[in-house]
Specification:
Layout (H helix, E strand, L loop, with lengths): L2 E2 L5 H10 L3 E5 L13 H16 L3 E2 L22 H17 L4 E6 L5 H13 L3 E6 H8 L7 E2 L2 H11 L20 E3 L4 E4 L2 E4 L13 E2 L18 H22 L7
Parallel strand pairs: 1-3, 2-3, 2-4, 4-5
Antiparallel strand pairs: 6-10, 7-8, 8-9
Helix pairs in contact: 2-6, 2-7, 3-4, 5-7, 6-7
Length: 266
């Protein structure tokens, strides 16, 4: 059984860090998730998964880092963001303390895709310090466990199911509408805010969320091209969310067991 760092005294933390297989750092975002989902969705999911991992694996669970890189969502009020440079420094400075306390394996449980660049940069810094770092994107783990859990968009039925399981009182299913994407033109068809289809090719573009959706929720065809994109957010259930959270947490815990056995040369 793991430990929540913030609940330990310093002598307890000293002993726990000697015994832990890894340090788990949940990281999310405060950003719009359509008209029916709370701004803290990515933060809540990462924190919930990390706490579950702590109950089934001998790890140290750090406090969740709530704000990530989400500037492209900021046309919707309430979204907060750090720059990628600042966020990288946040990850590097926090993990630096764990390295100083003797940690050799860091696992980021990430709830927001926009954080990935900063996470990989911080992980590269850790590797130079002879510390192994890994980043788990929960939606990739979910899709690997069950193709029916593939994420099909922002505020979709999968994310909505997770939030119903975590705290249904802050989800307004009555406002969950099937998202309608916007295209750049009749000839320029958007997969998401990064990819545009033109004739038979795929062109990378740099857009903001408002360019693609008026409501904030959105189907992202590039995320899971083989998934059923017709499933509306209103199809979400707390039972499905609990199933996904539980099995993804078990999967990450199994990964941590294997990852923690890897030893780098001195």
């Amino acid at each position: 059984m793991g430990h929540l760092l913030e609940e330990l005294t310093w002598p307890q933390a000293k002993d726990a860090l000697k015994e832990a297989k890894a340090v788990v750092i949940p990281t999310g975002s405060i950003e719009q998730h359509g008209p029916h989902m709370p701004l803290g969705t990515d933060y809540f999911v990462a924190r919930n998964l990390a706490a579950r991992i702590g109950r089934i694996s001998r790890v140290i669970v750090a406090p969740a880092i709530p704000v990530g890189y989400a500037d492209y969502h900021a046309d919707f009020p309430g979204t907060l963001s750090l720059s990628e440079e600042t966020l990288t420094r946040v990850y590097e400075e926090i993990t630096g303390y764990f390295v100083g306390y003797g940690a050799t394996h860091i696992v980021f449980v990430n709830g927001h895709g926009g954080n990935l660049t900063s996470l990989m940069r911080a992980s590269a810094t850790l590797r130079k310090q002879n510390v192994l770092a890994a980043t788990v994107l929960w939606w990739e783990a979910a899709a690997a466990l069950d193709p029916g859990w593939s994420l099909i968009g922002h505020g979709d039925f999968v994310e909505t199911s997770l939030m119903l399981a975590i705290n249904e009182s802050i989800v307004d299913l009555g406002r969950a509408n099937p998202p309608l994407r916007k295209n750049l033109s009749d000839r320029l068809i958007l997969n998401d805010i990064h990819d545009c289809r033109f004739e038979s090719g795929l062109i990378h573009v740099a857009l903001r969320t408002r360019d693609y959706t008026d409501s904030g929720d959105m189907i992202e065809y590039g995320a899971s091209p083989g998934a059923d994109h017709s499933v509306p957010p209103s199809a979400a259930t707390a039972a499905r969310g609990e199933d996904i959270l539980g099995k993804v947490a078990q999967y990450i815990a199994r990964f941590i067991d294997a990852f923690s056995e890897v030893q780098l040369p001195s």
